[in-house]
Sequence to fold (413 residues):
Amino acid sequence: MGFLMARRVLIGLAILLIVAGIVFLVPALRTQVSGWLPSSFSTQAPKTRAKGKRKLRPAPVKTAIAVTRNVPIYLEGVGTIKARSTVAIKSRIEGQLFEVLVREGQTVRKGDVLFRLDPRPVQARLKEVQAILARSRANLDKAVADVKRLSNLLAKGYSPRTQVDDAKTQVNMLAATVRASEATAELTQLNLDYATILSPIDGRVGGILITAGNIVKPNDTQPLLIITETKPVYASFGVPEQYIDRIRARMATSQLTVEVSTQASRTAAATGRLFFINNQVDTTTGTIELLARFNNDDERLVPGQFIRARILLSTLENAVLAPSRAIQINQAGHYLWVVRPDNTAEQRSVVTGPDDGDDVAINKGLRAGERVVTDGQLRLFPGARVLLGDGTVAKLPGDGKSKRRKGDKAARP
Fold:
């Protein structure tokens, strides 16, 4: 019984589909039964649809005018700031640290006193060595007098020659002893000078790693402090190896200016002079190291700091510039939208050049004075009307006078 019921339902549905297909395919029948069909099957256009082609509203855009300007061409690289010299201060003699005459972060000059060790043991040793030296000199004087006396006796025949020779040998031995004593006294005096530790360079003091009262040893593993020269400093950075010849040619005729910027400042933090090109290329990166010298009088550059450096190689004169926001890219390359005098959009392929801040040099495809679209490109197509910042709309054939359309908001240029 259920099978017969399902069979009747399927047959009924098939008949309805056949009748609907005949009505849809035959226009005459569809016209007669149009009152009974949904609006999507009606052969008449909706009354609300306007006759003729619908007019598109103009696209609001932001624009800018292409300008002409000289563009400096820079070669950029990344690197770090290096100190010209860094000294780890250590004691040359063993002794007790008597006095600390410097503080952390202090700027010192060459020859300034940093530490003093207890000088008394060295002073006592110096007195001992000076006494030995005086005794050696006295013995030498006596030996010289003996040689002179024996030489006179030899001349008269009262003294054998062997005694004169032995006396001369004694003089030479005592003279060597005097020289050794003088060297010992000089070394002891030098150690006494080492008890006062001086700064060997101009620079800034780091952290002091020892306090007064401790015993220090010569050339200990831990330094007393570290002094870093901060004025001047060097900037070490790498550039691609293909620019080596151009850099050398410029250095042969004039000094190259190097500008560096830090992470804290996007603008140039300091300006220096390039003075060194390394003698080998880094094979892992294909770059060569350059060094530039900076006076760093304000100490804005800190050794170890990460920097971006750039070198002025040349200047592109009278270049046509457009905002970088106006440049678009597709499979064919770079392009931009140009607003023609009738306020319609034109897609223009361009060849770009070097950057100059927020602008890009256009080597081909754009003239100075032309208006380019910087925002709103997604709503444009070739020939589309645009709504400029002043609210004017292009006049097309049959449109009448151009005017501000109600409901359109003027885009800021």
Notes: The longest helix spans residues 120-156. The two ends are 79 Å apart (CA to CA). Helices lie at 2-25, 27-32, 120-156, 161-194, 244-253.
